[in-house]
Design goal:
The complex is a heterodimer of chains A (389) and B (350). By secondary structure, chain A is of the alpha/beta class. Chain A has two domains: 133 residues, Peroxisomal Thiolase, Chain A, domain 1, CATH 3.40.47.10; 238 residues, Thiolase/Chalcone synthase (Peroxisomal Thiolase, Chain A, domain 1, 3-Layer(aba) Sandwich), CATH 3.40.47.10. Helices cover 36% and strands 19% of the residues of chain A. A ten-stranded mixed sheet of chain A has the order 3-2-4-7-1-8-12-11-9-10, with helices on both faces. Chain A has a two-stranded antiparallel ribbon with strand order 5-6. In chain A, strand 5 and strand 6 form a beta hairpin. In chain A, helix 7 packs across helix 11. The chains are: A alpha/beta (389), B alpha/beta (350).
Chain lengths: 389, 350
């Protein structure tokens, strides 16, 4: 397999972007990444797009061809692929693009992720999100996404004594990081009390334990590593990728407090990169709910199982802590345009490894990780990145 | 020559319900909801009240303040989104009730919450062009909020009537300007009982965009600044939006306080800015300048730059209860009574 590098990144602001369409957002992120990589349109061999549910959110399927068309590339007749895998679709698109280059089939591939979620009402958006859980055995019986994650949180509290304050510490930390990210949806710090006093969504998860609905897009340019230096002095290498699946429905899983898909995907990715969790300085993990980040840092073995709550409260995962987790603000504060998530996480890690992360820069970051979930953990994808200087 | 407000009258039903009482029914923290919306209570129409009775009350109050012949009124326009009839005008009933019929034109207007201000502008045109001596512009609503919906905490009832003309003008309208786009933030289709809305979409891209742009156009047209005005009043769907818009535009709390009736009576929709304006006219002195920008979903804003004249002193402003008195004269009801009054209880068919 050939080594693969990221030579350019681009992203839009995340938020309730009422006056921007799916097309506007996708094109902005893609063009920024292309400009960042200093490639020409004829250099592009293929486009991979992560998108969860444009069909339901904006009544538009076939977004793969749409993106090439509106990027002005229709005449190039490029192969375009749209990837779906719940919330993990962007991360899977990245993995598929990596494989395509590693195989020798392509040299340069654009990987984009985008979602336009605010054209539908809040209730409808929540229903669309819940469709990544098991429709027949969960959603039909009234289980919402927040409800399912609340069960994981409740069980984690029961088994390990995790406190609501410790869950809330995830939101406080990620808002603090988000306040340093000019592209974040929420750029305001919040207090523990704000999280604890927020309206209850699904006990024990309050409003501020939940990531928002967002519009946004992100893109990265992948290139065969041996050609990367032609375009940049600071390529970032994709050193390992792991993807794993699990039972679709939460109640079928081995246990509620470990996401086996994350454990397996993490091991695969780290193994390929010949790294240990302790080597990672910066990680973007899937914090669609505060409990998700607690589970992620445990399942990725940054901290011992059951210790995610106290570790977060103690600042282990804070900016320039033992491992800086969700420096972008995460899904919680940076925002959660679902299809963009996996790609946006990669954009953040690349910025960190290049030293381009501004006020939220992690000092001396060499290795970074992204972790992205689909559904309630039926899919997990982990990528490992290394500064390529 | 300027057109302007010759007389005015408002009406607010005396029943009130608090956000706390509404929230208790739905398992919500109504007090927090009320704080968040900056609403202490909302008015509730009694079982015998609707947009016709509210419009008639407001029109009568308007006529009671001035000495003029009702037959000099050449047009009556009633703006509302809760006209009792889909087909059959409210305005004709008002015309009969105040003795203006039959030699006049009349029609009902609809533009969400700004149908009343649209009626003011139409009336300005008709009177400035000398087609008629006076024209009566009414904004009045018994607004609907679906049970359990966020709107239920604010949707209330009330209205005001403004007599527009070019002589005996108590408040001259020097400038009016509108800002209108196709923005679907709030709607109710034919036959639907309750409106739908776009949640937070009703804020930034809807209310604020139109109110702020309209206000800035008005400043430009009038060559004025916020500090030039004694009073400012805005459409008030809740107590939060107009305060934020005012602050953003550079107005001080003291300028908007008097017209901010929403805190005590909720959102009277088409009535909202006109009731607020009536509250200001109840106390304004000659020479006072008033800045008013309404808003209607769908969406648009109408702005008015006004100056109170000496004629205001000739109006019998205490002939009918002032807005402040109507706000103070209230009776709290519980949710069951509210449900009965608002027709939310299924009754045996007659």
């Amino acid at each position: 397999m050939r080594d693969v590098a990221i030579i350019g990144v681009g992203e839009t602001e995340f938020g309730e972007l009422w006056d921007r369409s799916f097309r506007d957002l996708g094109i902005e992120a893609g063009l920024k990444a292309i400009q960042d990589a200093k490639i020409a349109s004829e250099d592009i061999d293929a486009i991979y797009i992560g998108n969860m549910s444009a069909g339901k959110f904006i009544d538009q399927e076939h977004v793969s061809a749409l993106v090439a068309d509106y990027a002005g590339l229709a005449d190039h007749h490029l192969p375009t692929v749209r990837v779906e895998g719940g919330g993990a679709c962007g991360a899977i698109a990245l993995m598929q693009a990596r494989l395509a280059i590693a195989s020798g089939m392509y040299d340069i591939v654009v990987v984009g992720g985008a979602e336009k979620m605010t054209d539908v009402g809040d209730v409808q958006a929540a229903e669309i999100l819940s469709s990544t859980a098991d429709q027949e055995w969960e959603s039909v019986f009234g289980a919402t996404f927040a409800g399912l994650y609340a069960m994981m949180a409740r069980r984690h509290m029961h088994e390990f004594g995790t406190k609501r304050e410790q869950l809330a510490a995830v939101a406080v930390k990620n808002h603090k990081n988000g306040s340093l990210n000019p592209e974040a949806q929420f750029r305001k710090e919040i207090t523990l009390e704000t999280v604890l006093n927020s309206p209850m969504v699904a006990d024990p998860l309050g409003l501020f334990d939940c990531a928002p609905l967002s519009d946004g897009a992100a893109a990265v340019i992948l290139c065969a590593a041996d050609r990367a230096r032609k375009f940049t002095d600071m390529p970032v290498l994709l050193k390992g990728s792991g993807q794993a699946s699990d039972y679709l429905a939460l109640h079928d899983r081995r246990e509620l407090t470990t996401m086996d898909a994350t454990v397996v995907a993490g091991k695969r990715a780290l193994q390929e990169a010949h790294l240990e969790p302790k080597d990672i300085q910066v990680a973007e993990v899937h914090d669609n709910f505060t409990i998700s980040e607690i589970l992620a840092i445990e399942d990725l073995r940054f901290v011992e199982k059951g210790k995610g709550g106290p570790a977060t409260a103690d600042g282990v995962t804070a900016l320039n802590g033992k491992v800086s987790v969700n420096t972008s603000g995460g899904l919680k504060a940076r925002g959660q345009p679902v299809g963009a998530t996996g790609v946006a996480q990669a954009v953040e890690v690349v910025k960190q490894l290049r030293g381009d992360a501004g006020k939220r820069q992690v000092v001396g970051a060499r290795w970074g990780l992204t972790h992205t979930l689909g559904g309630t953990g039926a899919t997990a994808v982990v990528h490992i990145f290394e500064r390529g200087d | 020559m300027n057109s302007g407000i010759v007389s005015y009258g408002a009406y607010i039903p005396r029943y009130r319900i608090t956000p706390k009482v509404i929230g208790a029914v739905w398992g919500n923290d109504g007090e927090a909801m009320g704080r968040n919306l900056n609403i202490r209570a909302k008015s509730v129409p009694g079982p015998d009240e609707d947009v016709i009775t509210i419009s008639v009350e407001a029109a009568r109050a308007c006529m009671a303040k001035a000495d003029l012949e009702p037959t000099d009124i050449g047009a009556i326009y009633v703006g509302s989104e809760s006209h009792p009839y889909a087909v059959k005008p409210t305005a004709t009933v008002v015309a009969e009730a105040i003795g203006s019929a039959p030699v006049l034109t009349a029609a009902d207007f609809e533009f969400a919450c700004k149908a009343g201000t649209a009626a003011i502008q139409t009336s300005m045109g008709l009177t400035l062009s000398k087609m008629m001596k006076y024209s009566l512009a009414i904004g009045s609503d018994t607004s609907q909020g679906a049970p359990g919906d966020a709107l239920e905490y604010s949707a209330s009832a009330g209205g005001a009537a403004l007599l527009i003309g070019t002589d005996h003008v108590a408040a001259e309208i020097h400038h009016t300007v509108s800002y209108t786009t196709d923005t679907p933030d709030f709607w109710r289709r034919e036959g639907q009982r309750y409106p739908s809305h776009g949640g937070r979409f009703t804020g930034e891209p809807a209310y604020f965009k139109h109110v702020i742009n309209c206000a800035q156009l008005l400043f430009k047209r009038a060559g004025s600044q916020p500090q030039d005005y004694d009073y400012a009043v805005f459409h008030q769907p809740n107590g939060k939006f107009p305060v934020r818009a005012a602050k953003q535009l550079g107005f001080k709390d003291a300028q908007i306080d008097l017209g901010l009736c929403v805190r005590d009576i909720g959102n009277t929709y088409s009535g909202a800015i006109m009731v607020g304006l009536s509250a200001i006219l109840d106390e304004a002195d000659p020479g006072d300048r008033i800045f008013a920008v309404g808003y209607g979903s769908g969406a648009g804003s109408d702005g008015f730059d006004m100056t109170v004249t000496d004629e205001i002193s000739k109006l019998r402003r205490n002939a009918t209860p002032t807005v402040k008195q109507m706000i103070e004269d209230h009776e709290f009801i519980d949710y069951a009574t509210y449900a009965k009054f608002r027709g939310k209880i299924l009754l045996r068919e007659a």
